What does this fold into?
Amino acid sequence: MRLTQQQAAEYHERGFLMLESLLDAQEVETLRAAFERDAKVPGPQVVTEDGGTEVRAVYSSHQRQQEYAGLVRDPRILAPVRQLLCDDVYVYQFKINAKPPFGGDKWAWHQDFLAWRIADGLPAPRQVNIGVFLDDVTEFNGPVIFLPGSHRRGLVREGRSASARSEQHLDPDDISLSPGQLAEYVDRHGMTSPKGPAGSVVLFSPEIVHGSSPNMSPFARRLLIATYNDTANLPRPEGEPRPEYVVCRDTAPLRPLAAPFSQVPCAVAS
Amino acid sequence: MRLTQQQAAEYHERGFLMLESLLDAQEVETLRAAFERDAKVPGPQVVTEDGGTEVRAVYSSHQRQQEYAGLVRDPRILAPVRQLLCDDVYVYQFKINAKPPFGGDKWAWHQDFLAWRIADGLPAPRQVNIGVFLDDVTEFNGPVIFLPGSHRRGLVREGRSASARSEQHLDPDDISLSPGQLAEYVDRHGMTSPKGPAGSVVLFSPEIVHGSSPNMSPFARRLLIATYNDTANLPRPEGEPRPEYVVCRDTAPLRPLAAPFSQVPCAVAS
It folds into this structure.
């Protein structure tokens, strides 16, 4: 379950690595069913559309659903993450985003690590993100767009925008690149967006500049994003920490399961 | 300059046909320069951004700039259009759209012919559109998205939305497909968007269902769209006709130039 040297080099060079069809169709079905189940658990971790009941995102499902508890420990995923980062990692954030038809997040171009440094006092960019496609991702349903190699230049900006509207809430626009910065970055790095069938997994750097297309299709598109953090790099929030469903408190190092999550049961951590 | 039988069949089957790099780099430069020049001609045919000076679109440049007068008569373009439609065609509408960075038209899914029937009393879908790429078109800078084959099912809806806000102005939302209609159409036809280098030309049907992605890139993207209409199918507006720069009044049949527009001068029709 280790990445080849070439794969690891590609991750470090480009800032992301695509593992196409890492999970099989049956596993995808299992994960979708667990998502539907988890979206019905009442609580602030379920984000609905403004004024609607349609579920837009669910946080921290790995703390409630054994399929996701298993997935974040699956050797096909956790082993590569440890290889790229270090042996002792835990899940810092876990989110499943259902991008609605004809819409989706604004496409502010940003670097994740800046957001986490500001919001949670995360000391260093010692994270690896994984994106797990729960639906096919095409050019039409809102793929993430990366600027390959942009992570190697560190943070483009140091803090949030002076025009930030709220001290509490971190708006993507507060940390986005300016049009001039982005023009220079795109000229130099180009744009690319990993696409592939459901079950594919993309690993990506917390410092890679990325944006998000709207979903032009008439169908929702579900994407899981989990962030692993080095246990030696715990957040140090200055004020009130963000809620537990957003910033996970269980920082014990994860150990890989002996086999894929679909073959071994995994208890949900209490 | 005729299309092959296979190309013509593809157009009729799928509702569009891509002619990659039909124009060469020098011709593209010539057309860009003519656009920049034409965008400085004062008048209502130049559409600027709300409250800004940035040019978003220019209409009817073929009536003022000899390069575009030549292009619409260029045998590489006019001959295929006549082959697909009929011998006697004229330019019904001509528009160059500069899709701004990080934005662009809303992506209402629609059929052109419905708009023209409502706005101009156009009797039948006896048109061929051409899209001329003045910049490279990629998945990131707002390509048009087609539902291949959808034109063969005729108009999805008969009139404008009951909630239309204005009798005068035709909002794309007034003629767009409902989410349910679009889901059925996408399921059946799929989505595709022709991309290619500047100088490519795409021919497409007035009845094909299409939408438009936003431009995620930091650079504007210029696209010329001209619509040829059968001279036996002239508009019959019920009220005041739309302005001449939107709906061209010169309905004399066009004759192909003897050679590409870059090789023979073409006077601007007065």
The first strand of chain A starts at residue 16 and ends at 19. Residues 25-38 of chain A form the longest helix (14 residues).
